[in-house]
Design brief:
Layout (H helix, E strand, L loop, with lengths): L1 H18 L7 E7 L7 E8 L2 E10 L7 H15 L7 H11 L12 H14 L8 E4 L8 E4 L4 E4 L13 H17 L13 H7 L7 H31 L1
Parallel strand pairs: 1-3, 4-6
Antiparallel strand pairs: 2-3, 5-6
The structure holds zinc ion (ZN).
The site of zinc ion (ZN) has 4 residues, from helix 5.
């Protein structure tokens, strides 16, 4: 309880100080509320004469599990409204990039059985049995994006490039490694870092190196190279077959 209160105080003070270092700080309160169905929030204020004497922020309960930076971002958005300013901070950018993913927010979906199985293994081997299962699915056949973790939907998507034409796994180990990488995103979430490498922080990279097979990334690259080559050959032989019909 004690910790909660001081954490809230910290978030509020940081948000305010960064925007208005020279302004006298009014009394600041923060509550998490069930009233909001989405990632929403509002602010109420009291005035004495022209001076704002207290601000009470209500944020959706969902923000409680969000990184401090995102919470600071939403509070700063609200502060800008109250004081009619337009000051932008990196926390606000973080918050708005987070919110941009909300439009396609959906309920927890059905997970793929193979990914579930691999998740259970990884959970025991690398996460001390203490990471919640996100929604796990295969997505488009992409050579470029092998995996993705969506923070808001809590969903990991793995490229179907690792599956054959009948949707059977070609290389279980490769899928497992990509899944491991994405689970690390779930574990580390947004961390304090400069904006560009907030996803792959030093701590993230250190965890990544703990994977038992140090050569796995070059093996995957080799696999992708061969796969690309085969696809090109496939296209080529299709063309040849078509030609045969004509000649
Ligand atoms: Zn990544």
């Amino acid at each position: 309880m004690e910790i909660q209160t001081s954490l809230k105080h910290d978030i509020l003070t940081k948000a305010f100080q960064e925007l208005y270092p020279n302004k006298i700080r009014p009394k600041l309160n923060l509550e998490y509320s069930n009233r909001f169905s989405h990632y929403n929030g509002n602010v109420k204020f009291e005035k004495f004469g022209r001076e704002i004497t207290s601000l009470t922020f209500s944020l959706s309960k969902k923000f409680k599990d969000c990184e401090e930076e995102i919470q600071i971002g939403v509070i700063q958005e609200l502060l800008n409204k109250v004081y009619k300013t337009k000051i932008q901070t990196s926390n606000q950018s973080l918050y708005s990039s987070f919110v941009r993913h909300l439009t396609n927010y959906t309920k927890k979906g059905e997970s793929h059985h193979l990914l579930k199985e691999l998740f259970e293994e990884l959970k025991k081997e690398y996460f001390n049995d203490s990471i919640d299962e996100p929604t796990l699915r295969f997505g488009k056949r992409s050579f470029r994006i092998l995996g993705n973790y969506n923070y808001v939907k809590d969903t990991i998507t793995i490229s179907s490039i690792f599956l054959d034409e009948d949707n059977l796994p070609l290389e279980r180990d490769f899928i497992k490694y990509v899944l491991y990488h994405e689970l690390l995103h779930k574990k580390h979430k947004f961390r304090k870092a400069n904006f560009n490498n907030m996803h792959h922080t030093k701590e993230f990279r250190e965890d990544e190196k703990k994977y038992f097979d140090g050569d796995i990334e070059s093996k995957i690259k080799l696999f992708l190279g061969k796969r690309r080559l085969r696809e090109e050959l496939d296209v080529f032989s299709k063309v040849k077959n078509t030609l045969k019909k004509f000649f």
